[in-house]
Amino acid sequence: MRSLVLTLAFMGLTSPAIASTCEESFQKKGDFLNGSAFAARVQVEGGTVEKAFSQLRPILARDGIKTTSADVSTGVMKAENPSTLFQRALPIDVFASMDGTLLNVEMVFTLPSGVSARRETVKKHLCSALNQLVPKANAATLPIKDDSTAIEIAANTLAKQVKESADNPARLRLNFIGKTFRVTGNVLGITEGNGSYRVSFDGNQPIVGTTSIDKITVVCAMAKNQDAAVAALETNQRATLVGRFQGFDTQVNAVQLQDCIGR
Asked: Do the beta carbons of residue 2 and residue 105 sit within 8 Å?
C-alpha cells in the first residue's frame, strides 16, 4: 500500500512548467524505511499514447523489464523488474496523457521499504527508455531557410488539402510530411508553452450559404529566439510564416508546422 501511495503522489505533480529534459524532470520521493519512488518524464510533440506504449514495450524488454498490461484509454501501462532469488518483482508504472498536441509520458519506479537503489542509476535507466520516445530531430532540428524551396500556400488551402488527406497516412507522408511551407493567413491567436510560441492561423474556408464547418487551424511553433518576429504579429491580422509540416492532429483539427520563422 505504501508503494501505491508513493506512485500516486507523482501523478499529482503535473504542472504547466515542465522540465525541458528527462534528466531535469527526475525526482525521488520517500526513503529507505518507508519505501521510495523515482519518477521522470518527457514531452513528445505530435505523439500518441498508443504509439508511446508500442515503442516502450521493446525498449523495456531490452532492459529485462516485462510489460504486464497497457490500457491506451486510461493512459496507464504497468511493467515490472522481474523477481530474483533475493528480491521480489519491482513495479514500474507509465502514465501517458495528451496536452493539446503534446504527449506527456511519465515513468515511475517504486521500491518497497527496506530496498534501496542509487539515484543516478535509476535516472540513467528511466531516461534511457523515455528519451527514445523523443524524435532525434527534436534535439537538433535543422533551421529552415526562407528560400525558394518553401511551398507558398494560403493557410485555409493547406488546411483543406491536409484535411482531405487525413484518412490516408501514405498520402500525408508523400505530400506533406517534412515539406516546408510559406503559409499566409489570418492570425487567430498567439500562445506560449513548452519553450516555444504557437501562432494559430484560421484554416477555415469562406462560408457559403448556411453550410456549417468544423473549426480547423494551422498551428506554427516558433522558437523563443523568434521573439522579434512573434512580437510583430497581431491577432485578426494577416501574416506569413515559414515552417516544416509535422502532422495533423485529428482531435483538435489542427495542422502542425514546426521550426517556423518569420517571412
From this structure: no
> How many secondary structure helices (H) and strands (E) does the chain include?
8, 12
Rounded to a whole number of angstroms, the CA Rg of the chain reads 22
pLDDT in tens, 139-157: 444 556 545 678 999 999 9
DSSP run (H or E) holding 218: strand 217-223
Count of C-beta atoms within a 10 Å radius of residue 168: 11
Residue 141 C-alpha from the chain's centroid: 15
**Interior/surface letters 37-49, b for 16+ CB within 10 angstroms, e for the rest:** bbbbbbbbbbbeb
Asked whether the whole model's pTM tops 0.90, one would answer: no
Tens digit of each residue's pLDDT (9 = 90 or more) over 174-229: 889 888 999 999 999 999 876 788 999 998 876 554 444 568 999 999 887 778 88
Q: Return the SS3 of 19.
A: coil
Amino acid at 183: V
